[in-house]
Amino acid sequence: MGKYDFITAELSELKAQGLYNTIRTIGSPVGAWTVVDGRRVLNMCSNNYLGFANDPRLREAAKRAIDVYGVGPAAVRSIAGTMTLHVEFEEKLAHFKGVEAALSLQSGFCANLAAIPTLVGAGHVLFTDELNHASIIDGCRLTKAERVIYPHGDVAALRKALAEKRDAPRKLIVTDGVFSMDGDLAPLPEIVEAAEAFGAMVMVDDAHGEGVLGSHGRGIVDHFGLHGRVDIEMGTLSKAFGVVGGYLAGKAEVVEYLRQRARPFLFSSAATPADVAACMAAVDILQASDEPVKKLWDNARYFKGKMAELGFDLGQSQTPITPVMLGEATTAWEFSKRLFAEDVFAQAIVYPTVPRGKARLRVMVSAVHTQEDLDFALSKFARVGRQLGVI
Description:
Blueprint (H helix, E strand, L loop, with lengths): L4 H12 L16 E4 L2 E5 L12 H14 L7 H5 L2 H14 L3 E5 L2 H12 L5 E5 L4 H8 L4 E5 L4 H10 L6 E6 L11 H11 L2 E5 L14 H4 L8 E5 L9 E5 L1 H10 L1 H5 L5 H16 L2 H20 L10 E7 L1 H13 L2 E2 L2 E2 L9 E6 L6 H17 L4
Parallel strand pairs: 2-11, 4-5, 4-6, 6-7, 7-8
Antiparallel strand pairs: 1-2, 3-9, 8-9, 10-13, 12-13
Helix pairs in contact: 2-12, 4-12, 5-6, 7-8, 13-15
């Protein structure tokens, strides 16, 4: 028996179950219309909420940074890789977020891997929502802390678990702010109240709230008016900010502790000057105007309203994330394939990203979609939905 037979068998099984993921390739800047697999299509599935991925102001900032700083720092931040750009960005981001300090990392995934195992370890207890993102799950796996998984959004169950573990010397609650597959919000005010009652720290993953929720897109903590009551906010710079990278923000002492101890910060090279400069430009734009955020929400309300009128099941989303619930993976893949033939790019989301039987298309509108774009998409969704008997 060959040593790779198990791989061949599992790949074949994925194909048989309709779970094999065929990766499409982008051949242009990411915008409302994007070249995918050589075809110009309406992009309805990227995380480019505000259209910053191809914003000329971000492009110019990146170009200028390369001219001044080169293409990379060539070292980890803690040895010889911290450039003045990194420090300036962290100060600008902390001011924007309304926190004491911020620490930038290579990605949102890295930020979760950095914070969770650093904040809790052996003898401590970690409380995590059952639908948290994979990066939170992996961060939890890296710690020796006891793990308590509470039912999705169930603060009563969380309080019961906190009461049972009240004597633990260190307790950390971790939750997504916006749950990326369903678009619903964590009950953050109630979570914070529970944490305060039992002396626990709170960490919120704001990957899909940054640039979307709160004043000027400051995120879920601002949205709920919880400044100073959340210990650590994690965010990504690859969604609404349109670039790449991650950050941890909060109280200065906590951020400094992570700077001193978090392994992804200490042992992985720093973000490039172009990326950091582009992210700073995104913060500057949002600091100056909330028009991109307002346009995003206007587009989201319009599209979701029309999809509901057509009869599509959009789940329980409270954000611009629009899950078009289809049930079986084969239906989702076929729906996506037919949309692509109609010049609409909307990828299927299937197991293991979502539970079996809850396959969907996760539609993501952006601030740069026009109403004509959205009407075009709606007409194609209606046509394919009727063809497949979904509506």
